[in-house]
Automatic annotation (TrEMBL):
<dbReference type="Pfam" id="PF13489">
    <property type="entry name" value="Methyltransf_23"/>
</dbReference>
<comment type="similarity">
    <text>Belongs to the methyltransferase superfamily. METL family.</text>
</comment>
<dbReference type="GO" id="GO:0008173">
    <property type="term" value="F:RNA methyltransferase activity"/>
</dbReference>
<comment type="function">
    <text>S-adenosyl-L-methionine-dependent methyltransferase.</text>
</comment>
<protein>
    <recommendedName>
        <fullName>tRNA N(3)-methylcytidine methyltransferase</fullName>
        <ecNumber>2.1.1.-</ecNumber>
    </recommendedName>
</protein>
<dbReference type="InterPro" id="IPR026113">
    <property type="entry name" value="METTL2/6/8-like"/>
</dbReference>
<dbReference type="GO" id="GO:0032259">
    <property type="term" value="P:methylation"/>
</dbReference>
<keyword id="KW-0489">Methyltransferase</keyword>
<dbReference type="InterPro" id="IPR029063">
    <property type="entry name" value="SAM-dependent_MTases_sf"/>
</dbReference>
<dbReference type="GO" id="GO:0008757">
    <property type="term" value="F:S-adenosylmethionine-dependent methyltransferase activity"/>
</dbReference>
<keyword id="KW-0808">Transferase</keyword>
């Protein structure tokens, strides 16, 4: 398939006819996986991500130099490229952590956002963790790895033992005031979303914030699960008929969020801030088919906590 041509970068308003078509497609082909398969894939999550990085190394995601257009004046960046290389994320975080800041990047992968951030912000220090030990090894073996600026470690966000805070005491770095959670929560089983977000919020001081971006309900990648039927002998990709939760072909997870769901989730764990849905259309050069992309993003703040 030819590469898509991104539409203009501004988010598009919802178009009822398009949204109705997307909903209609998602309502079809809803055969779900067995509970045994769900449990099996959940238990093997770490190994599946290690396999992912073994197969793709650092070639799957391009370096992320791209988020400025999404958060207005906060995100000025001179390196914005096309949407497909996800450089918006780097500009989003880069503008937020200027100066003598320390960032916690959860789900750092092999450093596709980390190293452009360090290049753009010479004073920045980053705690970077990932579920995959193979990914963290690649971060550490990167030619630009600097132990004075990067604290890279393996961590499972779905656990609390040991606490994540125990990994953030490196040297004399200032406390973390910003956490990036970008295309990470969708890879975690939905019953753990609130727990993960609460644990991250608890790490932050009053006024600290979480920069969030992930897949939205109705994104092209979700629609594809319903337009390509699973083989009759294979476990279906849809893992629950009650939630938009799927298994990719490499056995990693994929969840699609609605704006209302994320607003409720943030309220449940005590975070404040607006959530927005981004809608875009890309056109395939060869087939001239419109492809609808949907993302959700937020900048959540920790409000003042009452003193006990």
């Amino acid at each position: 398939m030819s590469d898509p041509i991104p539409s203009p970068h501004e988010s598009q308003p919802a178009q009822p006819a398009i949204e109705l078509t997307i909903s209609s497609i998602i309502s079809q082909n809803r055969r779900t996986a067995t509970p045994f398969a769900v449990t099996k894939h959940t238990a093997e999550a770490a190994r599946n991500w290690d396999k992912f990085y073994k197969n793709h190394a650092d070639k799957f995601f391009k370096d992320r130099h791209w988020t400025g257009r999404e958060f207005g004046s906060e995100l000025a960046s001179g390196k914005a490229k096309g949407e497909d290389d996800r450089a918006e994320e780097t500009a989003l975080v880069s503008a937020d952590v200027g100066g003598q800041s320390v960032l916690l990047e959860v789900g750092c992968g092999v450093g596709n956002m980390l190293y452009p951030l360090l290049e753009d912000n010479v004073a920045l220090k980053v705690h970077a963790c990932d579920f995959s030990s193979r990914a963290v090894d690649m971060v550490r073996s990167h030619p630009r790895f600097d132990d004075d600026r990067v604290n890279a470690f393996v961590y499972d966000l779905t656990t609390t033992d040991p606490p994540l805070s125990s990994f953030l005491t490196k040297k004399d770095w200032p406390e973390v005031t910003t956490i990036s959670l970008i295309f990470v929560l969708s890879a975690i089983p939905p019953q753990l979303h609130a727990q993960v977000l609460r644990n991250l919020a608890d790490l932050l001081p009053n006024g600290g914030h979480i920069l969030f971006r992930d897949y939205a309900y109705g994104d092209l990648s979700q629609v594809r699960y319903h337009t390509k039927k699973d083989a009759a002998w294979a476990e279906p990709s849809l893992l629950s008929d009650l939630a938009p939760w799927y298994r990719r072909g490499d056995n990693t997870f994929n969840y699609f969020f609605t704006q209302a769901q994320l607003e409720a989730l943030a309220a449940e764990v005590g975070l404040q801030g607006e959530v927005e849905t981004l809608r875009r259309t890309a056109v395939n050069r060869k087939s001239e088919v419109n492809m609808q992309r949907r993302f959700v993003q937020a900048k959540w703040f920790v409000p003042p906590r009452t003193q006990s």
